[in-house]
Please model this.
Amino acid sequence: DSGVTQTPKHLITATGQRVTLRCSPRSGDLSVYWYQQSLDQGLQFLIHYYNGEERAKGNILERFSAQQFPDLHSELNLSSLELGDSALYFCASSVGAGGRHNEQFFGPGTRLTVL
Amino acid sequence: GQNIDQPTEMTATEGAIVQINCTYQTSGFNGLFWYQQHAGEAPTFLSYNVLDGLEEKGRFSSFLSRSKGYSYLLLKELQMKDSASYLCAVRVGSNYQLIWGAGTKLIIKP
Model:
């Protein structure tokens, strides 16, 4: 158990719909990262928040948005869903935004299925 | 551009040794991570290298050559539970973003 929690574990929805994925980082971690992993694919970095502020954006579609709240939990919003959005969505957290080590700890993921 | 290359799949025998290579071409370098990921599960941290040389941690070791843009993960005394994907990731840039390789699927045979 990494200490990072994600809800829900599974989500099944239809094309065109909107969903919200939630992540709570490890206690004391200020950074939250969101990743998408399609079947048998590598991790695609979506976005990084540090202490409530957006720090970096990866290959995140305009239909997707995220935010980090004052209590440091984060939400990833996916809208106008398409079949290709079906994937595992991971949240990870780390203590800071950089530093010598600063490994990322991953949550169990949310499996999104768009029908 | 940013690029990380790993073999797609490797097969090894239980009890043996396997070396998984990772080469990278990135703009900036602030460290290299190896993660293990079992199918359908979250990646878990294995090792971190920022200076050239070998880092040993039990059955797993990781090597880095910054001048060659090259790293490897060495797994000794392989066990069936080591069957997983192994992800190489390089930290770059002022925001310390991680660039991820596609992962190497390691299959362990009895």
